[in-house]
Each structure stands twice: as C-alpha cells, then as structure tokens.
C-alpha cells in the first residue's frame, strides 16, 4: 500500500465528472459541411498572415477569429439572418476545425446564438448614450464569440470548466484575504485562475464569469430573457468590477506559483480518460506518466518559444518598418534635411535581433523540476488535506505608511526611470542618433523587453518555483520602468494597429467574398460533373 494514493474527494469527483464527458458526434454524410481544398489553401494562408501581424497567444486565436468574422458579417448583414452556416464555413476554410467535422446542426446552433444576441442588442441599445452603446455591443460580441466557440467544441469547454473548478476547490482554502467577504474573495480567485492558469483574454473572462452566475444566453427561453435583458447592463458592469478587483493580480501571482503541477495533471486526465483513476492511485504509474509528460511539455515549450519569438519578431519588424516609412524617414528629412541610414538600419535590425537572442538563451525546466512537480501532484491528489488547508497566501490591509517615505520611494523610482533612459540616450547620441531615431529605438527596446518578459513567463509555466532569488526585488525595481513602458506601448499599439485595420476593413471583406464565390463555383462545377457521370 506504500505505493498507492488515496484520492481526495475533489479528485474523485473530478474523475467522475470527466467520465461523463462524451466526445462530440461527427455529422453524418448528408449533414456534414465540406469545403474545397483549393479555397482552404488560400483562406489558411490569409489567416496565417493575418494572425502574424497581431501578437496573440495561440489558444486565443480561434475565438478572436470568430469575433472578427462576426463583426464583418454583421456589418454587411445587420440582421444576422442565415449567417450561421457562413461562419461555420469560414472556420472550416481556415482549418480552425477539420474539414467535414462540422455540419448543419452546428450551423443551426450558431444561427440560434446569433439570433438571441441580435434580439438582446436591439433591445439593450435603444435610447442609450453613445459610450454605453459601444460598451454593451463590445461586451455582447465578446460573449457571443466565446459562446459560439464553446458550442462548437463542447468537450474541450467542459474539460476546461471542470478543471478550473477543481483547481479552485483545491487551492481556495490556502488563501486568506482580510477585510473582504467570502463571495468577493472567491470571485477574485476564480478570475485569477482564469488569468493565470487558463490565460484567458477579456472576452473569455467576461463569458466565464457570466456563466458562473447565469445560463448561456442562447440556452435561456423567451420568458427568462425577457426578465434578464433589463438587468444585463448592470450585470456587465458588475462582471468588469470583479475582473478589475485589486486583489486579482496578487491572487494571479499565487496561481502562477502553483500552476505547473495542475497543467501536467490536466493533460494526464485528458490523455488517459478511463485509465486516469488507476494511474493517479499508483505512485509508480503516476511517476511514469508525469515524467514522460514533463519531457514532452518541456520540448513543446522550447518549440513554442521559437514560434512566439518569431511572431514577436515579425510583429516588431512590420511595426518598425511601418513607423520608419510614416515617421522616421520623412520627419528626419523634414527637420534635419537628411536621413541617417546607419541609425535607420540599426533601429530596424537591433530589436528583432535582441528578441531572437533572448528567446535563444531562455532556459526550460530540468529533471529536478519534474521531481518537484511529481511530489506536488501527490500532495494535490492525496486525501490527506494538509496541503489544501495550509495557508500559502495571507493578505492584510495595507498599513498607513510614512508620507515622507512614500515620497522618497516615488522619487527614487522616478530616478531609476530617468537614469535608465538617460544612459540609453547618451549612448545613442554617441552613435549619432537624432532625436527621432532615439525615441523610436527606446520605443522598440521597451516593446522587446515586454515581449521577452512574456515569452520568459511562457517558458516558466511548467517551472515549479523553489523560492524567490535574493536579488529579484532589486532587479525588478530597476526593470519595472522599461517593462511598464513596454506594456503601455503594446496595449496602445494593439488598439491603434493600422495593419490589422487594413486587413480587417480593406482586405478581408473582399478577399473572403471572392473565396465564397470561388467555392460556390467549384461546388457548381463538381455538381455538373457528377450529373455527367
């Protein structure tokens, strides 16, 4: 019995619920939707290019694409009538789902979701000020795209939901936050898991919090919707208040500290299915699976680092070239009467090269980390609840600090900002950079630093920390100004990304219309050929 593990009540319940999840039924030959391979080639190529110019994590791309398709389709057809099958076809074109894996039933489900949300939009937007209309429309588009994706891949969605709740149950007793209610703490912790463990974007966050409190909108009948619609705006505001709760970031760091063993455990459950209970109950079998999974995930992480770095390099390079043509070259020529091609070349080459070097020398976890993950998984699974009930995070109300000390810290922080960028300014001046070139260089160094930080976080997602390095607070203090600027610039660029604007509003609509016509023509020719045969 020394090699056996007595599973906790949470683990037992999770395994029972996982057994109930059935894989989606494939559509039959009459109802399945098939798309042309020729059309798929061009649509897939377009999606790859389109996604390269927008820095987004891989697991968020499909939902974001659904949102983009919805916005375009509903701008051309505001009623949303007969758009369900069109959306399904576009997703099949781009191979977000395998060809013929979706059918007429899926198109009908998507159409129902569109109809319900369109009805809600028509009622909610009437008489609202412009700012409120924009907010409600954005919120509902986030919800609709998330609901469509989870409707089309219900097995993944259910697994995601169950494991999120499992992690919540296992870890929630390890947290104590003073001066707030249990309800607020639980809501904040749920958001922290969504952000830290699931790495959800704002659309997923909004949808998953909403579905904690209510059924999905398309699952509600007319009477339920009639009662709910007047309350939706205030409910949306409450959801965003939960997402923006100041405790969330602190709890997200706690989740990041604990997430590595949960990631491996979640993958083990998905792969092993009905065998999972036997494996989780036996230490030797568990070690074999954990060791193999960790090696696979480390290798996958290394490949993912290369992909993320490449995407960041493409994103930075394209943005840099765009700014060079729009700002650096013409402004330098106008103000200084000449263009320093040396600084222009350095400004173009250094940021992508720096990103490449950072990605290359980022370390992945080792065998010692695997052993720590294995031991932690045993603690998580074991019916002995000592791990669950041992407090790991206790937050107290901030004490009133000495005003003069706060002022001194603020001045010192500002000085690190000034010194960092001041030294960079002096060095660039020695190389003959003008003011415009200096600003653009600092702009892209900040972006690269922020992207590199995110990439390093990706590399550490399977790392189980042993403790904080002695000098970490000091290095964080001096790097925070650059990271803060990089984060601010990244968000600003994502909101003002002219390249994505060109793709979404100038290229995509006519391109997808041409693809639609080509597919109809191919289908017509195929039908005529079959008639001859």
Provide an overview of this structure.
By secondary structure, this protein is mainly alpha-helical. 76% of the residues lie in helices and 1% in strands. It has 20 helices and 2 strands. The chain has helices at residues 9-20, 37-52, 58-76, 84-93, 104-124, 130-152, 154-171, 182-196, 202-213, 222-243, 247-272, 276-280, 283-336, 341-360, 367-381, 386-389, 403-430, 435-459, 472-495, 498-532; strands spanning 175-177, 393-395. A two-stranded parallel sheet has the order 1-2. Helix 13 packs across helix 15 (367-381).
What distinguishing features does this structure have?
single chain, 533 residues, mainly alpha, two-stranded parallel sheet, 2 strands, globular
Share in helix: over 70%
Low-confidence parts: none
The computed structural class is mainly alpha
The geometry reads as globular
H/E topology pattern = HHHHHHHEHHHHHHHHHEHHHH
Measured by DSSP, the beta-strand proportion falls in under 5%
What is the terminal separation in angstroms?
A: 69 Å
Number of helices: 20
The overall pLDDT average reads 83
Q: How do the strands line up in the largest sheet?
A: 1-2
Largest beta-sheet details:
2 strands, parallel
- Using DSSP, what is the number of strands? 2
Cα gyration radius (Å): 26 Å
Q: How is the secondary structure organized here?
A:
Blueprint: H1 9-20, H2 37-52, H3 58-76, H4 84-93, H5 104-124, H6 130-152, H7 154-171, E1 175-177, H8 182-196, H9 202-213, H10 222-243, H11 247-272, H12 276-280, H13 283-336, H14 341-360, H15 367-381, H16 386-389, E2 393-395, H17 403-430, H18 435-459, H19 472-495, H20 498-532
Parallel strand pairs: 1-2
């Amino acid at each position: 019995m020394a090699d056996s593990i007595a599973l906790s009540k949470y683990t037992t319940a999770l395994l029972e619920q996982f057994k109930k999840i059935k894989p989606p039924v494939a559509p039959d030959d009459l109802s399945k939707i098939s798309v042309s391979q020729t059309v798929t080639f061009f649509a897939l190529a377009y999606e790859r290019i389109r996604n390269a110019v927008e820095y987004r994590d891989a697991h968020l791309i499909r939902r974001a694409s659904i949102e983009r398709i919805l916005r375009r389709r509903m701008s051309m057809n505001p009623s949303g009538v007969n758009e369900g099958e069109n959306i399904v076809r576009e997703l099949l074109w781009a191979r977000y789902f395998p060809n013929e894996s979706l059918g007429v039933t899926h198109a009908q489900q998507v159409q129902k979701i569109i109809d319900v949300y369109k009805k809600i939009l028509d009622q909610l937007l009437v008489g609202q000020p412009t700012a409120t209309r924009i907010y409600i429309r954005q919120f509902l588009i986030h919800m609709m795209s998330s609901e469509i994706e989870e409707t089309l891949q219900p097995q993944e969605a259910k697994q995601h939901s169950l494991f999120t709740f499992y992690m919540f149950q296992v870890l929630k007793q390890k947290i104590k936050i003073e001066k707030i209610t249990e309800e607020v703490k639980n809501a904040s912790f749920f958001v922290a898991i969504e952000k830290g463990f699931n790495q959800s974007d704002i659309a997923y966050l909004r949808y998953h919090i909403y579905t904690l409190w209510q059924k999905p909108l398309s699952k509600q009948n007319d009477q339920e919707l009639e009662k709910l619609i007047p309350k939706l705006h205030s409910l949306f505001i409450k959801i965003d208040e939960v997402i923006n709760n100041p405790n969330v970031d602190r709890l997200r760091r706690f989740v990041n500290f604990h997430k590595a063993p949960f990631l491996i455990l979640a993958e083990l459950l998905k792969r092993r299915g009905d065998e999972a209970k036997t494996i989780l109950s036996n230490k030797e079998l568990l070690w074999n699976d954990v060791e193999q999974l960790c090696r696979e995930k480390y290798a996958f992480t290394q490949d993912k680092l290369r992909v993320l770095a490449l995407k960041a390099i493409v994103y930075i390079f394209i943005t840099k070239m765009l700014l060079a043509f729009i700002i650096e070259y013409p402004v330098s020529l106008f103000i200084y009467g000449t263009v320093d091609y040396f600084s222009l070349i350095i400004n173009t080459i250094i940021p992508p090269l720096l990103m490449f070097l950072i990605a290359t020398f980022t370390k992945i976890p080792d065998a010692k980390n695997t052993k720590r993950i294995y031991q932690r998984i045993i603690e998580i699974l074991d019916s002995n609840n000592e791990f669950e009930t041992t407090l790991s995070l206790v937050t107290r109300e901030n004490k009133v600090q000495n005003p003069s000390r706060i002022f001194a810290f603020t001045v010192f922080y500002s000085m690190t900002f000034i010194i960092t960028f001041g030294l960079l300014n002096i060095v660039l001046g020695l190389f003959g950079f003008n003011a415009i070139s200096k600003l653009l260089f600092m702009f892209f160094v900040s972006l690269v630093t922020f992207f590199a930080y995110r990439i390093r976080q990706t590399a550490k997602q399977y790392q189980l920390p042993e403790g904080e390095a002695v000098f970490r607070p000091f290095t964080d203090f001096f790097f925070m100004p650059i990271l803060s600027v990089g984060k601010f610039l990244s968000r600003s660029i994502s909101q003002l990304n002219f390249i994505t604007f060109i793709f979404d509003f100038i290229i995509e609509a006519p391109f997808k219309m041409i693809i639609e016509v080509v597919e109809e023509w191919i289908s017509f020719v195929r039908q005529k050929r079959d008639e001859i045969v």
